[in-house]
Automatic annotation (TrEMBL):
It comes from Arundo donax. GO terms for biological process: folic acid-containing compound biosynthetic process; tetrahydrofolate interconversion. It comes from the Eukaryota. This is 5-formyltetrahydrofolate cyclo-ligase. SUPFAM superfamilies: NagB/RpiA/CoA transferase-like (SSF100950).
Length: 221
C-alpha cells in the first residue's frame, strides 16, 4: 500500500532592521560612517544542516513513492489486459448494477461522471449514463443533472459540463467522447461551477483503488 511521504521541514529566518537613529547634532561628515552600517541588510544565514537533511529526505521519499506508483500502474495494466472480454463485461455490469441499486445513487440530484473509454480499459459507465439521461416512466422524482468532463487545453485543464442527451457529446482529438460547449439544441452547456445546487455524487475513474477507497490515477496530473 502506497504510503504518503513525510512532509518536508520548512525553516524561515526573520531579520528586522533597527529603527533609524535620531538625526545627530554633529557635523555632516560624521553622519555617513555612522548610519551606513545600520542600513545594510543582515547577511543571509547559512541553511542549517537539519533543514538540508530534511529536504534531501523529502526528495528521496517522494521519489520512492513515485517509483512505487509507476510499478503498481504497470502491474494493474498487465492485469487488466489479461482479462477476457467476457470477464470484463461481467465485472463492468456488476459494478454498474451495484451503483444503480445503491441508496446514495438513487438519492443524488447533481451527478458528475465520466464517459468511459474502452481503449483505456476504464470501468464502463454506459448503463449508468443511460439511466440518468433516460429515466424510466414514473421515476421523475429521481431525475438528476449530469455533468461530464471536457478537456480545455494542452495542460489538461478540465470543465464539467451538463448534458441532457448523448447527442451533446463529440469526439476529441484522442477519439474520446466529451461534451461540446454547445449542446445539441444550440444552447451553451452549463458549467458545474455555475450550477444552482452543489454536486452530491461524483463517479471518478482511476487506474486502481484499494479497499478503503484510496485512488491511484494514471499519472497525468
Amino acid at each position: 500500500m502506497i504510503k504518503n511521504a513525510a512532509a518536508s521541514l520548512m525553516m524561515r529566518l526573520h531579520h528586522h532592521l533597527p529603527r533609524a537613529a535620531p538625526p545627530p547634532t554633529y557635523r555632516r561628515r560624521h553622519v555617513l560612517p555612522l548610519l551606513l552600517p545600520r542600513l545594510r541588510a543582515p547577511a543571509s544565514a547559512p541553511v542549517p544542516p537539519i533543514a538540508a537533511a530534511a529536504a534531501a529526505m523529502s526528495t528521496a521519499a517522494e521519489q520512492a513513492v513515485a517509483d512505487q506508483k509507476r510499478a503498481l500502474r504497470s502491474e494493474v495494466r498487465r492485469a487488466l489486459k489479461a482479462l477476457s472480454p467476457d470477464q470484463r463485461a461481467s465485472e463492468d455490469l456488476a459494478i454498474q448494477t451495484t451503483i444503480l441499486n445503491s441508496s446514495w445513487f438513487k438519492a443524488s440530484k447533481q451527478l458528475c461522471a465520466y464517459i468511459s473509454c474502452a481503449q483505456l480499459r476504464e470501468v464502463d459507465t454506459s448503463k449508468i449514463l443511460a439511466e440518468v439521461l433516460s429515466p424510466n416512466p414514473g421515476q421523475e422524482e429521481q431525475a438528476k443533472d449530469l455533468y461530464v468532463p471536457r478537456v480545455e487545453d494542452k495542460n489538461r485543464n478540465m470543465r464539467m459540463l451538463k448534458i441532457t442527451t448523448m447527442d451533446d457529446l463529440v469526439k476529441n482529438s484522442m477519439n474520446i467522447l466529451e461534451p461540446s460547449p454547445v449542446d445539441a439544441s444550440g444552447n451553451d452547456c452549463e458549467d458545474v461551477l455555475s450550477a444552482s445546487s452543489p454536486v452530491d455524487l461524483l463517479l471518478l475513474p482511476g487506474q486502481a483503488f484499494d479497499r478503503t477507497g484510496r485512488r491511484l490515477g494514471r499519472g497525468g496530473g
